[in-house]
Amino acid sequence: MGDRQWPLRIEQEQGTKSLAGPRRAKSTRERIGTDITSFSGRPAQAAPGWVPRSIRGDRRGHAVEEPWWPCNLCVPEHGSRDKPAPECHNLIERAPQGHAQRKGAYQMKFSKLGLVLAVGMVMTVLSALATGAAQAEENKGPLWIVGSPARGLLAGQTRAFDATSGVAELHSSASGVPNTVCEKTLARGFLLGGSPGTDDATITFRGCHAAGKPNCVATGVAAGTNEEEIVVSVLTILAFANGSRTSAVDLYAPEGESGAEELFVAYKLKNRSGFTECGTLAGEIKAEAKGSPVTINGKTRNLGQLAKIGHEASGVFTLSTVGETANVGLLEFPERNGSEHFNEAELYNSSSGKYEKVTALLEAGALKEAWQTTTTPAVILLSPKEPFGWDY
Fold first, then answer.
1. DSSP string computed for 89-107
2. End-to-end CA distance of the chain, in Å?
3. Contact 262, 234 (CB under 8 A)
């Protein structure tokens, strides 16, 4: 190897001096004292304690990997491919004749590779944009968010919850008919992920009776129901409050059994043993959902009830806004306001691709229009406890 006649380029600290013409090049061993054990047209195999350097700077100062080039420049182990030992910077042997052609072919390969990588990056960006657009198209309204930091509850994900409230009251628009009052309300169910967010729940009303007539008790008609209790199974779906994108409501529909899909609640008023308070009120009362038909969790049902979604702030109910979470959520069933009450919302319609107005409505036969309120908002806690709210 030491007898090869190659032109040399010696890079010095203050400049570069070219030595042209045939002359004997000093071997790498002579230049940096390294015992080169072989040379076969590939990077030299260095003695123990050294590693071959196969990175050569091109004309623009960029590293070009040339594993096929017989480079004899070695770096000590305390150096590296990117940061060689200082003593290795001053020795670069130029390639023998024919290297230029091989280098050109090699750079062409890298040019092609760069083109492929560039195309790949463009395709990746386009794919990401397409995915983002698809996700935007799949946004069908408010969804539940949970945790800290908050994250969307996606389709297939669930969170268990428990809810309680004070006195609940079923009102009637019929004159002269007392309301039905329940002293306590308990609910248990699951928030269901997706857009829009939904849930299913079982609500148990306890201590139920005709208002002002504590001995005219109300008991659900379902078999096995305890006296003075009414049990209701519901489905709910998140929607925007009418005319708003900063507040959300929970729309209620009866889960309903086959043949009774509209039945929201059914109970009987009867006298407690030894009392006659019911009078002509005694009998069965049915409240049916007569609002807009919507599909919730694969079931198409009419909407019957609506609740505002909020949390407590400074001791009062406050509407929850977009992205806002709290450990304790509140539901407020709005009071009637004159001849109208809060029962409209905007829900995404998959068929039209637009948000459309929907109405929640209960009717109870001779009692005419009916609606529920509570003296205090329903308190909702996730189980296990974590912050939650809504976003879109």
1. TT-EEPPPTTHHHHHHHHH
2. 72
3. no
